Amino acid sequence: MNQAAAEPEYDDTAIRFLEALWGDGYLSPGGPEEVDRVIAGLPLAGKRVLDIGCGAGGVTLHLAASHGAGHATGYDVELPVIAAARQRARKAGLSDRLDFVHGPPGPLPFADDSFDVVFSKDAMLHVPDKDALFAEIFRVLKPGGALAASDWLIGHDSEPSTDMKAYVAAEGLSFSMASPDRYRLAMERAGFEDIVLTDRNGWYRETARGELERLKGPLYEAVSRTVGKEYVDKNIRTWEAMQKVLDSGEHRPTHLRARKPDR
To answer: In 3D, which of 109, 63, 66, 106 has the Cα closest to residue 85?
Structure first.
């Protein structure tokens, strides 16, 4: 799994801004309701769960507190979000069932066959090498284990449109988006079975429109007091750029589900 080392992309300012928009501990859209959709029908009670790209820990806590995961490990390459997640776990009194691991980009720092379930929420787009990513997820899953994730995909593997390039530039993040076909191929090459991809463009297209309206309206003054008007204005421009590629269908948020075969 290869990702260039860099200064943190999700610093304290980014964390405060995204939590104001998406909820305490959440750095991607949809809150606990969207997490519940990603794992729908997948029993977590008593299971060992890995949350890849755990961010500020809201999802990892939810998997333990609301879904009964026996032990959940959050993993992220960015130290500021790991620090925030550890603090959140302590405050929630869940430190005995949660741990948060910070590590450099590359192979996952876990033994083979360690987890019953691997979860990820809108984080895999930061990893350029999808084959290496899914091979690592396959490796750390126990036989019969499940992958349940969502990620931000692009509708094709051709040259991105001018609008998509403008959106990615506005984000200023290390996006390495790929198509549903490319994700499916990487999952198949890793050895996964029962692969299901569920398109979520329609949901986020309308959700993002509402987020933009909130940023311009009722949230503007309160969030500006927290992170500054310049930061909010920049993100309003980013949301406007994102809305174009959501409306065109080029930006395709997608749920992923697959299973590692039993031995």
So the answer is: 63
For the chain, give the DSSP string: ------S-SS-HHHHHHHHHHH-TT--STTHHHHHHHHTTT---BT-EEEEET-TTSHHHHHHHHTT-BSEEEEEES-HHHHHHHHHHHHHHT-TTTEEEEE--SSS-SS-TT-EEEEEEES-GGG-S-HHHHHHHHHHHEEEEEEEEEEEEEES-SSPPPHHHHHHHHHHTS------HHHHHHHHHHHT-EEEEEEE-HHHHHHHHHHHHHHHHTTTHHHHHHHH-HHHHHHHHHHHHHHHHHHHHT-EEEEEEEEEPPP-
For residue 7, what pLDDT is reported?
61
How long, in residues, is the chain?
A: 263
**Residue 198 burial (10 A CB sphere; 0-12, 13-18, 19+):** middle
Measured distance CA(128)–CA(131) in Å, rounded: 9
Which range has the worst mean pLDDT, 8-17, 105-114, 201-210? 8-17
Give yes or no for residue 107 having a pLDDT over 60: yes
The one-letter amino acid code at 237 reads R
Span 10-55, pLDDT tens digits? 888 998 999 999 998 898 999 999 999 999 999 999 999 999 999 9
| Cβ count within 10 A of residue 111 | 9
Left, alpha or beta for 150 (phi > 0: left; psi -120 to 50: alpha)?
Answer: beta
Strands 251-259 and 193-199, sheet pairing: antiparallel
Confidence of residue 173 (pLDDT cuts 50, 70, 90): confident
